[in-house]
Design goal:
This protein has 180 residues and is of the alpha+beta class. The chain folds into two domains: 7-82, Ubiquitin-like (UB roll) (Roll); 88-176, [2Fe-2S]-binding domain (DNA polymerase, domain 1). The chain contains six helices and seven strands. It is globular and about 60 Å long.
Length: 180
């Protein structure tokens, strides 16, 4: 078997710089999840078809299962852990809770990041644009209509200047609104 020389890379993940040496064949998903501990980055299909592994690379959605770590040297990478400051929720996270969009949660990180990328580019997307953007994410629970509602609600929050929400307050509101 051929020996591969490690490649030095610098990644800025959720605002923090990491200097690493990686084999040339190492995928970004493996670097983020197993080396750096960002467990929101999940592998579904390993072929770039399900969207579960999506992260933002310099603000753009990217399938981390198809991206070699060495190709994103110097890039700013955002995972769900970096969407909001500690103790806060980003508007897309709050909207997902408010619309009961989260079911099993496996696909949720990739969907949240796609929602954020969409709203960063277009703060008032049409239903068709939302469907197009989320078409790269497969949800086994079938929560697509809730995701559509969540994007619209997140857009409303952001327009109102509500980008971050207190996590504990959001949790209490969610629990109080559970049908009994």
């Amino acid at each position: 078997m051929a020996e591969y020389k490690p490649i030095p890379v610098t990644l800025i993940v959720n605002g923090k710089e990491y200097k690493l040496e990686v084999p040339p064949y190492e995928r970004l998903i493996d670097t983020l999840r197993y080396r750096l501990g960002f467990t929101s980055v999940k592998e579904g299909c390993g072929r770039g078809e399900c969207g579960t592994c999506i992260v933002l690379v310099n603000g753009r959605p990217r399938h981390s299962c198809l991206t070699l770590t060495a190709t994103v040297d110097g890039a700013e990478i955002t995972t769900v852990e970096g969407l909001a400051p500690k103790g806060k929720l980003h508007a897309v996270q709050k909207a997902m809770l408010d619309t009961h969009g989260v079911q099993c949660g496996f696909c949720t990180p990739g969907i949240l990041l796609m929602m954020k990328a969409l709203l960063d580019r277009n703060p008032d997307p049409s239903d068709e644009e939302i469907k197009e953007w989320l078409s790269s994410n497969i949800c086994r629970c079938g929560s697509y209509l809730r995701y559509l509602k969540a994007v619209k609600l997140a857009a409303k929050y952001i327009k109102e200047g509500k980008i971050y929400f207190d996590e504990e307050e959001a949790r209490k509101t969610l629990i109080a609104n559970i049908p009994r």
